[in-house]
C-alpha cells in the first residue's frame, strides 16, 4: 500500500493447453487510477492473460499461478461460483465487438441493468428496486457520454452506432462499480474518429480512479492512454515499462520491430520527418509517364444508389471522378459506410453504376454485358480484406494460383504452367513448398500473398485492394505493404488502395481521395492532404489518428 | 469421460453393424449355406434354435437366410434411391439456385408444395401412378426424397454463389458455367453427401413400408418389409417370423442415422 491501492496483482501466471505453453510465467500489477496496456500480435497470449484475470479460460486450459489478487482478494482457488461473484462487481470486461457482445433481442438498458439485478446495489449487494435500477442505468449511460441516455436505454443494439454500442458495453461493465476494467481490443472494430472518443472515455474513467487493463495489437492506440506498456510475444512479457520509455527507448528487439513496422502518418507540423521515416518517398510516377497515354482506369461521375428500409434512396457513391495512370497508386480513405467498398465494386464491375461510367484502358468497362468484359477482366484484379473467403476451400495453393492464369497460359504445357506458378509464388515471397497446402493451413500473411499471386497471374495493369491489410498483424501488414510497393515499382502495376487506415495509405499512395457519405470531400497528393488537410472532415480524421509520442 | 466413451461405443457398433449388413447385401452366401427360397415342410414354424437361429416360417424356409438375402434388396433400394435423389436434387437445386429470381421463385414454391406432404404419401402417390413393382418402389421412394435435396442444394448454391471465391472467379473472367462446375457443384455436394447418409435410413424405412403394403416385390422374394408383413398374422404363434426382419430394419436405420449424424458433426466442426 504505497501511493495508490493495487487492484490487480498477478505473478507467475502460466497457461497451457496440453503440451503447448501459451502464457508463460507472466507477472503484472495494476493500481487504481492506472492503465496498463498489454500489446502483442495474434497468438502472443495477450487475450488469454486477460481472460485468466476473469477466470474465463476455456476448457482444457491448465493454469499455474503463484499469486492472483483481484481487488484485494486472493482468487487463486476461486470456484466458478466465486468467479461469478467477482465478474461484474470487482472486474468489468469490455470485449472487442459490441454488436456480438450485446444481446440483439434486448434493449440496451436491460443489458446494463442485468449486472445490477445479478449483483445487487454496488457496495452493499442489496436488491435494488425497479425504479432505482432505471435511474442507475440512465446515470451509467450518461457517465460514458451516451447522449440522451434515457431514450437510448430503450433502444436495441442494432439501432445504435458502433461507438454508442461500445459505450453501452462499457456502461454495463461499470454497472457493478468494479475496481478494474479489462478492455480487450476495445476500439479495433471502430472508425478512427469514434476510436478517439472511446479512448478519451477510457482515460477519463482512469482519471476517476479506475484501474484499466487494455489489450491491443496496436501500440499507437494504447500510447495515448496507457501509463505502462507490457509487450507480449509467444506467451511471455518481453518488455515492460512506462509507456513513454518503451516507445522512445525500446529495449527488446521485438518491441523495436513492432515500432518500426507500425505505419505512421506524416506529422502535420513537421513535414521533413516524413523524408527519413520508414514510409520513404516513392518516385512520383504519377505525372511522369502518363501524358498523352490513356489512363489505366477512369471513373467519371460515378453514382450508385441503394433503397433504404424506409423506402428512401441513399447514394452510397455520388459523383466520384478520378483517373489512375499506369503505375500510379491512389488511396481511398473514409470511415465505414462512406462508400469506399461500393466504389471498389463499381471499379471492378462487380456492380453497375446508376450514374456515370468507368473506362478501363481507354475502353468502356461499365454498362456493357458481362460476356464482353470477361476476356478483359485479367487486366484489373482484386485483393480483398478476407483472402480466406476468396479461396475455394477444396483447392490447393497451386490450383488457386493456376486459376488466375489467362487463357493463353492455360494452353501451354503442364510443365510451363507449373513453372509459371512457381515463378508467381516466388514473386510474392512464398516458398514453392507451400504449393500443396490448402488455404486453411496457411497463416494470414501467407493467404494474402497467395491472393496477390493469383491476382498477378493474369498480368493485370491495375490492382484494386479493399482493406487488404486490415486483418493482419502490424509486422505482417508491413511486409504486405512492402510487397505491394515492390510490385508497383517492378511491374508497373497501378493500385487503387481502399482503407480506413490513413497511415497505411500515406505509406503506399501518392494520391488520395477522402470520402464521406459517398462523396469525395478532399483529394490531392497524399502529403498535401495529410499534412495540410482543408476539409473539416479530413482534419477530424487526421487528428483522430492515434500517434506515438 | 464415460459419456464420451459410451458415445464412441454406440458409433463403433453402429458402423460395424452397417458393415455387416453391407457384406450381407453383397455376399449373402457367406452367412448361410441355405437357399432363401427352399421350402421344407418338415420344418414348419420351428422356433429359433441351433439349426435355424431365427426359426422358420410357415412353409419351412429359414428366416435367418431370408433376412440375410433381404439385405441386398433393402440396402440396394435405400442406397440407389438416395443416390438418384441426390444426383437429380443437386442438378435441379444448383440450376434453380443459379437461375433468375422468377424461375427460382416458381420452382421453389413447387418444391414447397411437395414438402407439405409427408414423404410416404408422395411415395404412395408415385406408386399409384407408376403401378406396383420392385423397381417402381425404388423410384417412388427416390421421388419422395427429392424435394428435400433440391431445397438443400439450392440453399447451398446460394451460399456458395455469394462466396468470395465465386466472386474471385468471376473477377478472373471465368465463364459462369465453368464457375458452376468447378466451384459451385463440388462445394454443394459436400454437405449433401452427409445428409444423404442419414437419408438412406429414411429411404429404407419407406421402401420397406411400401413392400409391407404389398406394393413392392411379391412373395417368394426375400425383402424385409415383405417378410414383416408375412409374419404379421403369425405373431401370436410364431413371433420370430416378423420380429427378426423388423429388428433388422430398425437396427439398420438407427445405425445409418447414428453414423450420418456423426459425419455431419465432424463436418460442421471442421467448418467453424
TrEMBL record, chain A:
Pfam families: ABC_tran (PF00005), oligo_HPY (PF08352). GO terms for molecular function: ATP binding; ATP hydrolysis activity. Keywords: ATP-binding, Nucleotide-binding, Transport. The keyword Translocase does not apply. This is Peptide/nickel transport system ATP-binding protein. One of its GO terms (biological process) is transmembrane transport. Belongs to the ABC transporter superfamily. Residues 8-259, 297-542 form the ABC transporter domain. Gene3D superfamilies: P-loop containing nucleotide triphosphate hydrolases (3.40.50.300). Transmembrane segments: none annotated. The lineage of its organism: Bacteria, Bacillati, Actinomycetota, Actinomycetes, Micrococcales. Signal peptide: none annotated. PROSITE patterns: ABC_TRANSPORTER_1, ABC_TRANSPORTER_2. NCBIfam families: PRK11308.1. CDD domains: ABC_NikE_OppD_transporters.
UniProtKB/TrEMBL annotation, chain B:
It holds the Pfam family BPD_transp_1. InterPro entries: BP-dependent_transpt_permease (IPR050366), MetI-like (IPR000515), MetI-like_sf (IPR035906). Keywords: Cell membrane, Membrane, Transmembrane, Transmembrane helix, Transport. It is a multi-pass membrane protein. Signal peptide: none annotated. GO terms for cellular component: plasma membrane. The chain crosses the membrane at residues 9-31, 73-99, 111-129, 135-152, 192-217, 237-260. GO terms for biological process: transmembrane transport. Its main location: membrane. Coiled coil: none annotated. It is found in: Cell membrane. Residues 71-260 form the ABC transmembrane type-1 domain. Belongs to the binding-protein-dependent transport system permease family. This is Peptide ABC transporter permease. It comes from Agreia bicolorata.
Amino acid at each position: 500500500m504505497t501511493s495508490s491501492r493495487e487492484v490487480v496483482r498477478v505473478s507467475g501466471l502460466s497457461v497451457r493447453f496440453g503440451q503447448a505453453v501459451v502464457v508463460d510465467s507472466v507477472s503484472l500489477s495494476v493500481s487504481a487510477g492506472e492503465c496498463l496496456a498489454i500489446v502483442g500480435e495474434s497468438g502472443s497470449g495477450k487475450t488469454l492473460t486477460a481472460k485468466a484475470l476473469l477466470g474465463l479460460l476455456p476448457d482444457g486450459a491448465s493454469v499455474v499461478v503463484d499469486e492472483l489478487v483481484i481487488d484485494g482478494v486472493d482468487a487463486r482457488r476461486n470456484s466458478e461460483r466465486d468467479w461469478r461473484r467477482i465478474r461484474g462487481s470487482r472486474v468489468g470486461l469490455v470485449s472487442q465487438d459490441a454488436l456480438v457482445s450485446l444481446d440483439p433481442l434486448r434493449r440496451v438498458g436491460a443489458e446494463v441493468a442485468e449486472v445490477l439485478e445479478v449483483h445487487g446495489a454496488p457496495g452493499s449487494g442489496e436488491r435494488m428496486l425497479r425504479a432505482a435500477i432505471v435511474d442507475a442505468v440512465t446515470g451509467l449511460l450518461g457517465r460514458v457520454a451516451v447522449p440522451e441516455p434515457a431514450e437510448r436505454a430503450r433502444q436495441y443494439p442494432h439501432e445504435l452506432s458502433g461507438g454508442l454500442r461500445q459505450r453501452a458495453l462499457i456502461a454495463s461493465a461499470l454497472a457493478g462499480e468494479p475496481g478494474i476494467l479489462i478492455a480487450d481490443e476495445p476500439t479495433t472494430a471502430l472508425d478512427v474518429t469514434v476510436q478517439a472518443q472511446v479512448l478519451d472515455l477510457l482515460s477519463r474513467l482512469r482519471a476517476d480512479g479506475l484501474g484499466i487493463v487494455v489489450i491491443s495489437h496496436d501500440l499507437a492506440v494504447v500510447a495515448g492512454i496507457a501509463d505502462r506498456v507490457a509487450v507480449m510475444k509467444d506467451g511471455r512479457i518481453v518488455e515492460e515499462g512506462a509507456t513513454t520509455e518503451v516507445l522512445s527507448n525500446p529495449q527488446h528487439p521485438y518491441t523495436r520491430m513492432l515500432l518500426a513496422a507500425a505505419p505512421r502518418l506524416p506529422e502535420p507540423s513537421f513535414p521533413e520527418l516524413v523524408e527519413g521515416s520508414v514510409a520513404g518517398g516513392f518516385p512520383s510516377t504519377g505525372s511522369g509517364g502518363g501524358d498523352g497515354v490513356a489512363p489505366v482506369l477512369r471513373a467519371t461521375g460515378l453514382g450508385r444508389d441503394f433503397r433504404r428500409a424506409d423506402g428512401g434512396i441513399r447514394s452510397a457513391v455520388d459523383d466520384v471522378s478520378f483517373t489512375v495512370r499506369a503505375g500510379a497508386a491512389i488511396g481511398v480513405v473514409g470511415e465505414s459506410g462512406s462508400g469506399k467498398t461500393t466504389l471498389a465494386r463499381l471499379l471492378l464491375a462487380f456492380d453497375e453504376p446508376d450514374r456515370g461510367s468507368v473506362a478501363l484502358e481507354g475502353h468502356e468497362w461499365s454498362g456493357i454485358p458481362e460476356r464482353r468484359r470477361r476476356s478483359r477482366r485479367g487486366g484489373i484484379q482484386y485483393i480483398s480484406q478476407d483472402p480466406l473467403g476468396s479461396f475455394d476451400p477444396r483447392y490447393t495453393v497451386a490450383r488457386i494460383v493456376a486459376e488466375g492464369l489467362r487463357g493463353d497460359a492455360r494452353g501451354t504445357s503442364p510443365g510451363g504452367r507449373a513453372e509459371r506458378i512457381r515463378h508467381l509464388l516466388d514473386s510474392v515471397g512464398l516458398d514453392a513448398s507451400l504449393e500443396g497446402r490448402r488455404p486453411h493451413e496457411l497463416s494470414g500473411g501467407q493467404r494474402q500473398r497467395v491472393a496477390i499471386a493469383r491476382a498477378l497471374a493474369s498480368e493485370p495493369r491495375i490492382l484494386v485492394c479493399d482493406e487488404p491489410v486490415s486483418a493482419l498483424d502490424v509486422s505482417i501488414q508491413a511486409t504486405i505493404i512492402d510487397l505491394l510497393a515492390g510490385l508497383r515499382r517492378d511491374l508497373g502495376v497501378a493500385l487503387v488502395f481502399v482503407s480506413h487506415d490513413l497511415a497505411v495509405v500515406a505509406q503506399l499512395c501518392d494520391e488520395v481521395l477522402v470520402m464521406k457519405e459517398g462523396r469525395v470531400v478532399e483529394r490531392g497528393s497524399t502529403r498535401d492532404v495529410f499534412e495540410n488537410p482543408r476539409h473539416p472532415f479530413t482534419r477530424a480524421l487526421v487528428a483522430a489518428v492515434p500517434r506515438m509520442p | 469421460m464415460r459419456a464420451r466413451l459410451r458415445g464412441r461405443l454406440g458409433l463403433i457398433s453402429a458402423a460395424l453393424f452397417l458393415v455387416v449388413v453391407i457384406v450381407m447385401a453383397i455376399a449373402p452366401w457367406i452367412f448361410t449355406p441355405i437357399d432363401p427360397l427352399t421350402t421344407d415342410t418338415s420344418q414348419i414354424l420351428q422356433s429359433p434354435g441351433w439349426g435355424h437361429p431365427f426359426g422358420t416360417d410357415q412353409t419351412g424356409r429359414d428366416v435367418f437366410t431370408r433376412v440375410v438375402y433381404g439385405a441386398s434388396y433393402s440396402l440396394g433400394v435405400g442406397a440407389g434411391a438416395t443416390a438418384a435423389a441426390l444426383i437429380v436434387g443437386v442438378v435441379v437445386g444448383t440450376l434453380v439456385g443459379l437461375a433468375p429470381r422468377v424461375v427460382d421463385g416458381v420452382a421453389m414454391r413447387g418444391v414447397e408444395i411437395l414438402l407439405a406432404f409427408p414423404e410416404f404419401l408422395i411415395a404412395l402417390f408415385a406408386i399409384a401412378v407408376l403401378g406396383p413393382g420392385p423397381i417402381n418402389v425404388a423410384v417412388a421412394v427416390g421421388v419422395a426424397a427429392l424435394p428435400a435435396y433440391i431445397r438443400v442444394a439450392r440453399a447451398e448454391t446460394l451460399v456458395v454463389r455469394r462466396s468470395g471465391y465465386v466472386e474471385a472467379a468471376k473477377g478472373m473472367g471465368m465463364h459462369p458455367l465453368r464457375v458452376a462446375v468447378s466451384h459451385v457443384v463440388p462445394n454443394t455436394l459436400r454437405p449433401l453427401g452427409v445428409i444423404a447418409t442419414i437419408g438412406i435410413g429414411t429411404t429404407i424405412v419407406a421402401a420397406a413400408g411400401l413392400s409391407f403394403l404389398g406394393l413392392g416385390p411379391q412373395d417368394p422374394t426375400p425383402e424385409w418389409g415383405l417378410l414383416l408383413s408375412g409374419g404379421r398374422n403369425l405373431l401370436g404363434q410364431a413371433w420370430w417370423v416378423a420380429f427378426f426382419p423388423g429388428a433388422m430394419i430398425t437396427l439398420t436405420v438407427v445405425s445409418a442415422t447414428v453414423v450420418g449424424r456423426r459425419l455431419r458433426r465432424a463436418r460442421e466442426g471442421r467448418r467453424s
